[in-house]
Design brief:
heterotetramer; A: alpha+beta; 4 helices; globular; B: 83 residues; alpha+beta; five-stranded mixed sheet
Chain lengths: 148, 83, 148, 83
């Protein structure tokens, strides 16, 4: 089970996980990214590259499936305006044993951060907004997964 | 060639998409960026530091050195910040 | 937010995660363990050491909180009879950034497997049952987390 | 001293809990296991291989070498298999 969704509507981890818990595996692992109230942020606005995003996320799932023995994986990502406290992204993986699901989940979110064509704009309480800068720490975490 | 711009690049250039016929000597992404910089003041500002830009050719990630070949779509954008 | 629950009733990841998504952090990670249909298993039966279990699980959360910067962590574990496909355990952690929640989740489930006083009996379709043997691979994964 | 048995140990001994006053020379968990093995055939079978047993003293994990001291509760069980 491989599923990618780009969503304008609120997402929640529960419905994303439901599909994975019924695959017969013993392990489901998930990561949910949530909008933080960083320095007065009230919401973020997510732009993406519509033609490329789905294919990119599906490639991440294919890469995870090639690397670990998975029964399924899902990625759901919000676009548009997302308020503080709401979920931006849910990634999850199912496997027979726990190591695979745990590692694949970390891989998927680490690679999504550096590879998937999304851009975040922060909106502040005073009405201003600015683009979020990419973080070098994300590059470091993503490169950990390079196959040697 | 269809050009697509995203995020701050889109805002600086002022359009999200445009079409150009590159001259024959534009072979790589870097050469395309260099040529595009000459199209307007806005293009010049948006593309003045290619090290801060990222690229996709026909929706696959590319680098400055990637050859354009017969690609139909070049997207130019800042480093991604999803997740 | 630190919460430990030993449950006779079905558990689901969603309600366990709900408490963690509202803590202001940007990251919630979870692991759900599910009863697998291994060689005709129809259900497992979980025995535990009532006086010790809660304290042990809370100590695991305390250890994770001391090691990583967490906003909260929860562990919920079933006892009694649990059917194939149902969740046995949910562990989850919340943090500002993703690395902490992801690592803490793996730590909590790895250590729970080797440290928490639960014992599993497998029930089979033919009416027989047997105690599950501990796995040396669980010891290896747990010892990965030893502080050097 | 309150003894608690779990899982296969409980089934082999035949009770989940019992009380014993250990003799003075029983100081460690290992010595307690050795002494308990003499209490019945069932105890002997349950405790014949201490390397396959795990212990908790007053609800804290202990090893064969741990001294009993003034602990009130000794739990004996096979390696745990939760999660």
């Amino acid at each position: 089970m491989k599923r990618v969704r780009i969503s304008n509507a609120p997402i929640n981890a529960e419905s994303e996980l439901a599909a994975l818990t019924g695959l017969g595996g013993g392990a489901v692992s998930s990561f949910t990214g949530i909008v933080r109230d960083d320095g007065g942020v009230t919401a973020i606005e997510l732009e993406h590259y519509p033609g490329m995003t789905d294919a990119c996320l599906l490639r991440l799932i294919e890469a995870a499936t090639a690397r670990w023995s998975l029964l399924g994986a899902v990625i759901t990502h919000r676009v548009g305006v997302v308020s503080v406290g709401a979920s931006v992204v849910v990634v999850a993986a199912a496997s027979r044993h726990r190591a695979e699901a745990l590692e694949a989940t970390a891989f998927l979110i680490d690679r999504l951060k550096t590879d998937a064509p999304f851009w975040k704009r922060e909106h502040f309480a005073d009405g201003t907004s600015k683009w979020v800068a990419a973080k070098s720490t994300d590059d470091v975490r993503s490169e950990r997964w390079a196959l040697v | 060639m269809k050009l697509l711009y995203f995020a701050s690049v889109r805002e600086t250039v002022g359009v999200s998409s445009e079409e150009f016929a590159f001259p024959q000597d534009v072979r790589s992404v870097a050469e395309a960026i260099d040529w595009l910089s000459g199209q307007s003041d806005e293009h010049a500002v948006a593309f003045h530091d290619p090290s801060k830009l990222r690229f996709a050719l026909d929706q696959n990630m590319a680098t400055a050195g990637t050859l354009i070949g017969d690609a139909n779509e070049l997207a130019i954008f800042p480093p991604v910040t999803g997740g």
